[in-house]
Amino acid sequence: ADHMAPITSFFDHDLPFLHENGSLVSYRGDRSTTLSYDGHTGWDYALRPPDPVLAAADGTVVFAGNSDDGCGVAHVVIIDHDNGYRTLYWHMSEVLAQPGPVKRGERIGIVGSSGCATGPHLHFQVQYLGRDVDPYGWCGPKGDDPWARYPGGQVSTWLWSWMPSPCNIPQGATLVDTGDAAFHKRGDGWQELAGGLGGTSLRVTSVVSSSVDVPTGSWQPDLPIAGRYRLLAWVPYIDNGLSDASSVTYTVTFATGSKTVNVDQSVTANTWVELGSYDFTSRGGAVRLEAHDGAAANGTTNVWFDALIWMKEP
Ligand SMILES: [Zn+2]
Predict the structure, then answer these.
(1) Across 231-237, average pLDDT
(2) What is the C-alpha to C-alpha distance for residues 75 and 64, in angstroms, rounded to an integer?
(3) Which of 20, 154, 260, 277 is deepest in the core (most CB within 10 A)?
(4) Mind listing the pLDDT tens digit for each residue in 41-67?
């Protein structure tokens, strides 16, 4: 799609066969039923018409039309990427693509709820050599991916070119996680939860802006050399029954000043958020996040604090 959308269902690594086997494992290795449903073959994103569906990468549209998925007619596009990978886009209300070459980012359809769907969403599915794989790879214990060990299964690889895997931080990047000494917090109400990058993350309930002591987290990297860095913040995907803050402000302090970046955490869970590229001095700079949600006046949303990475630009 052309904007971020909340994930509503993960890929099930314990047999993505679209039928139940009583077990569900996410790419993070956890078994929570709030992450997906048993047998899910792809990822679901909460989108609705007229949101467009965009091609994930260059390739050839090999199918654009109707497919009976057992509940009736689903509108579907399948793209072959000429490298063994295919991407599949289900439940559209309208197919815009034609068979033939397609470019990354091209509009191939409009989100809908055709076929086996209880409401409008995009079902995004990836296949390698004809078998379903998880485009988010495997983040759980090594050698423990049920789908990779299954005779008919396959190893999954992180496929998002614009962001690094949360389990495989690029060499030379500086990571500051909430458990590190380089992360500082003040104020009350902090709660540590399982999930997120490195296994845990912190949350506080958002407070109104006039509050005297707004809980605040601060990431202060120990950058080895001065230079330009791309800054990414991981937003964890944890379901605790509350909504996530849709308007929080990260304040980036860099070599020559500071800048604020507004982030909607409710649509960026399980994703890196781009905070921009800035010049930092060695051992200088910081990122600050206050537990204030500009969109929740009554202050009842989750504000999430997890890892940040500084990636040195060439
Ligand atoms: Zn789905």
Answers:
(1) 98
(2) 8
(3) 154
(4) 999 999 999 999 999 999 999 999 999
> Would 208 be classed as within a structural domain?
yes
Question: What span, in angstroms and rounded, lies between the C-alpha atoms of 75 and 81?
Answer: 20
Q: What's the CA-to-centroid distance between 9 and ligand 1, angstroms?
A: 7
Q: Is the separation of the CB atoms in 163 and 184 below 8 Å?
A: no
Q: Does 75 lie in the same domain as 143?
A: yes
Domain tally, the chain: 2
**pLDDT tens per residue across span 140-197:** 999 999 999 999 999 999 999 999 999 999 988 999 999 999 999 999 999 999 999 9
Examine residue 267 and state whether it is found in any structural domain, yes or no. Answer: yes
Distance (angstroms) between ligand 1 centre and the Cα of 86 equals 16
Each residue of 111-135: pLDDT tens digit? 999 999 999 999 999 999 999 999 9
Q: How far does residue 111's CA lie from ligand 1's centre (Å)?
A: 13
CB–CB of 215/299 below 8 Å?
A: no
Angle at 237 between CA 177 and CA 12, to 5 degrees: 120
